[in-house]
From TrEMBL:
<dbReference type="GO" id="GO:0004134">
    <property type="term" value="F:4-alpha-glucanotransferase activity"/>
</dbReference>
<dbReference type="InterPro" id="IPR017853">
    <property type="entry name" value="GH"/>
</dbReference>
<feature type="domain" description="MalQ N-terminal beta-sandwich">
    <location>
        <begin position="66"/>
        <end position="162"/>
    </location>
</feature>
<dbReference type="Pfam" id="PF02446">
    <property type="entry name" value="Glyco_hydro_77"/>
</dbReference>
<dbReference type="GO" id="GO:0005975">
    <property type="term" value="P:carbohydrate metabolic process"/>
</dbReference>
<dbReference type="Pfam" id="PF21226">
    <property type="entry name" value="MalQ_N"/>
</dbReference>
<keyword id="KW-0328">Glycosyltransferase</keyword>
<protein>
    <recommendedName>
        <fullName>4-alpha-glucanotransferase</fullName>
        <ecNumber>2.4.1.25</ecNumber>
    </recommendedName>
</protein>
<dbReference type="InterPro" id="IPR048458">
    <property type="entry name" value="MalQ_N"/>
</dbReference>
<dbReference type="InterPro" id="IPR003385">
    <property type="entry name" value="Glyco_hydro_77"/>
</dbReference>
<keyword id="KW-0808">Transferase</keyword>
<keyword id="KW-0119">Carbohydrate metabolism</keyword>
<comment type="similarity">
    <text>Belongs to the disproportionating enzyme family.</text>
</comment>
Length: 730
């Protein structure tokens, strides 16, 4: 490869070419690679600049004595690579390891007896890379220090991981489970405050568990922006490590029973009338809901401070322990929320940290520290809200286990964070502002996608010893028993769109898959949490192989499980180690798909590049409906013959389709709660390609009404029978 720009791009894991969704090779332009390198602060403006950057890359690689982190499998010896300048004439290297539990280990080795794996000459200095063998270490995160007898030294993190992810006991025993996926905010109840909350989640668990349901899947519960409740997308969160506090059930907070001002305010006729109006809206009125909840939660915090923090009660001590465990990430997140609220009150010119006065854009600045000191209670208030949310989510998971669910709650991790939110502000070196994450053109979005989410710098992620990834995964797994990674390819590669270019002009940037999925397995085992990877679209072989090696669950969507000729796969052809679903949160509901509403909507939104492609999509949907009916007939779930009119959508058709998924070989089958309701509700498709209208839409009936309907009972009974290996039509 003679082109220095392309050489440089290769060093930074920037793809030179790729295969599109049709399997056709695509060459990436030098313009795109140069723009992505610029986003990484790497100069490739011309060949001379690129050659200089290549030299700088190799200089950093060889002048670093040890890598920042290495990841190894449990039971295997550890080999630490060290870069030694030959002219130093070093003879010996001493090493010490402090295990995660504090236990020390140490040793030394003669350099002459170590294996040389690489040599180089940088700026007239000769280097040799040697490997220092260490004994096998236990599972966990350990700190190692190495030093030459000449004084050169360095430290690194050693992560020792298991060979596979956690598996649920019920599945290990041969059981096939089924569950319900729900957008938590959409739940309607007679006593919530206008948005589904953690009390509604417990109610759903108690209603569904006796029917055989073993898992409840949720939308991402990531923290949004309390000061901007109109920003509602769970896939553009402020911080993925923390929770959306609007899900707190205010009246279930223990402090509510102790706070007379809060109880009096809620009991007022005007307040009750407002709650009634909030519950009656078709869509969630987030602004009104937030105003009501935060008014009362602020009163509860004041009461909590007086009764528990000032008196150092066991409840107050539990909060202090939560603060200590969550540490600096929680403190920074709370400072962000307090700062964001403070600045937004000054005018619409402040909409997130990129718009803040310069002195507040760096979380380590003296101005930020001064704000945190002067407004300590404001900051602590947002820590308190996180504690309440964590308590209630943990209680919901405990409830699931108490009522006999085999797994319980399954959480969801969004691909990235909002560019103006807490997560990117807290770690500005990790997130890049010169590019965004998206997807190349595919069958669902023929113009490609740009999600507006800043990518993580893979070099910086490794330099930070993967701690941001560990913190995210660990915090999410604290409260759930299964965790789904939206777009699991983020562990291997992401489609970067350089600022100023179209999404189709981007390319893939690679991440350290082997290290990240191994760390994921470690946290999975430690937290007894199943890992599910949403591996839809173009999935490279390396990703599939890694998931299978570590026993991470695949994600199989009925609408995409077709053979080359359009035939739907038989239930027994589904991958066993997978979660099978009919549809997902960002696809049309079953009814919307069956009636082609999504095809019509895409046309209205001008998402088809040409009329020809629009017609092709329409024709393909007609063929797919016929193909699905044939699959249902072959499985003994429907009566229909070729040439007969297609049936209209009905509860009976929904029953048959879900029984089809239930009969699949996949260990877990999931149905969307939207498919249990709204049999006559026309709103069954996503809204736009960026902010889905159904993200804020409420279901059309309360949970009690849904689970008391004959249609729902029939669909769930069919799913339960199918999971037990019984064809419900037999």
């Amino acid at each position: 490869m003679d082109n220095p720009i392309r050489q440089l791009a290769q060093l930074y894991g920037i793809a030179d070419s790729y295969f599109d969704f049709r399997g056709q090779p695509k060459q990436v332009s030098a313009e795109s690679q140069t723009a992505i390198l610029a986003a990484l602060s790497v100069d490739a403006a011309d060949a001379t600049a690129a050659e200089k950057s290549i030299h700088e890359y190799h200089t950093r690689r060889w002048t670093g004595f040890v890598p920042p982190v290495i990841v190894v499998t449990e039971g295997k010896s550890v080999s630490v690579p060290v870069a030694v300048p030959v002219d130093l004439a070093a003879r010996k290297v001493d090493w010490s390891v402090t295990l995660e539990n504090g236990e020390p280990r140490s040793g030394s080795a003669q350099l002459s007896k170590l294996q040389t794996v690489e040599e180089a000459r940088i700026d007239n200095v000769s280097y040799r890379r040697l490997t220092v063998p260490l004994p096998a270490l236990p599972l966990g995160y350990h700190t190692a220090s190495l030093a030459l007898d000449t004084g050169l030294h360095g430290t690194l993190r050693i992560v020792v991981t298991p060979d596979q992810c956690f598996e649920a006991h019920a599945i290990a025993e041969g059981k096939k489970l089924w569950g319900i996926a729900v957008q938590l905010y959409s739940l309607r109840a007679d006593d919530n405050w206008g948005v589904g909350d953690f009390r509604d989640l417990r109610h759903l668990i108690r209603l569904s568990a006796p029917l055989g349901c073993g898992i409840i899947g949720l939308n991402p519960l990531h923290a949004l922006m309390p000061a901007n409740p109109a920003h509602i997308s769970p896939y553009s969160p402020s911080n993925r490590q923390f929770l959306n506090v609007l899900y707190v059930s205010v009246e279930d907070v223990p402090d509510f029973a102790e706070c007379e001002p809060a109880r009096k305010r809620v009991a007022e006729p005007k307040f009750q009338a407002m709650l009634k109006e909030a519950r009656a809206t078709r869509n969630v009125d987030y602004v009104r809901v937030a105003a009501a909840k935060f008014e009362i939660l602020s009163l509860l915090y004041a009461s909590f401070r007086a009764r528990h923090l000032n008196e150092n009660t066991p409840r107050g001590q539990a909060f202090r322990q939560f603060q200590e465990i969550q540490g600096e990430p929680l403190r920074l997140h709370a400072i962000y929320d307090a700062l964001d609220g403070h600045l937004r009150l000054q005018g619409p010119q402040y909409w997130g940290w990129p718009s803040w006065p310069e002195e507040y854009r760096d979380p380590s600045s003296s101005a930020v520290e001064r704000f945190a000191r002067e407004r300590a209670e404001d900051v602590e208030y947002f820590q308190y809200l996180q504690w309440l949310a964590a308590e209630q989510l943990a209680t919901a998971q405990s409830t699931a286990r108490e009522v006999g669910m085999a797994i319980g709650i399954y959480g969801d991790v969004a691909v990235g964070a909002n560019p103006a939110g807490s997560e990117t502000w807290s770690n500005r070196h990790l997130y890049l502002q010169g590019a965004s994450v998206g997807a190349p053109p595919d069958a669902l979005a023929l113009k490609g996608q740009d999600w507006g989410i800043p990518p993580q710098d893979p070099v910086e992620l490794r330099a930070q010893q993967y701690q941001p990834f560990v913190g995210l995964v660990r915090n999410m797994m604290r409260y759930v028993a299964a965790l789904r990674f939206d777009h699991v390819m983020t562990l291997y590669r992401l489609w970067w769109v350089p600022r100023g270019l179209l999404s189709k002009d981007g390319t893939y940037v690679h991440y350290p898959l082997a290290d990240l999925i191994a760390i994921l397995a470690l946290e999975s085992q430690r937290n007894h949490c199943i890992v599910i990877g949403e591996d839809l679209g173009t999935v490279p072989a390396a990703m599939t192989e890694a998931m299978e090696h570590y026993r991470a669950y695949h994600y199989k969507v009925l609408m995409f499980e077709q053979l080359a000729d359009g035939t739907f796969k038989r239930p027994d052809e589904y991958v066993p180690h997978a979660m099978a679903v009919v549809t997902t949160h960002d696809l049309p509901t079953l009814r919307g798909w069956w009636e082609g509403s999504d095809v019509t909507l895409r046309a209205q939104l001008d998402l088809y590049p040409t009329d020809e492609l629009r017609q092709q999509a329409h024709d393909a949907r007609v063929r797919d409906r016929v193909s699905l009916l044939r699959a249902l007939v072959a499985a003994g779930l429907w009566h229909w013959r070729d040439g007969e009119p297609l049936p209209t959508y009905s509860a009976a058709l929904s029953r048959a389709v879900h029984a089809f998924i239930g009969l699949s070989s996949s260990n877990i089958a999931l149905l969307q709660i939207e498919d249990l309701i709204g049999m006559t509700d026309p709103v069954n498709v996503p809204g736009t390609d960026t902010e889905h209208a159904n993200w804020q839409r409420k279901v059309t009936a309360s949970l009690t009404d849904i689970f008391s309907s004959a249609e729902t009972k029939d669909i769930l009974a069919a799913m339960d029978a199918a999971r037990k290996g019984v064809n419900p039509n037999a």
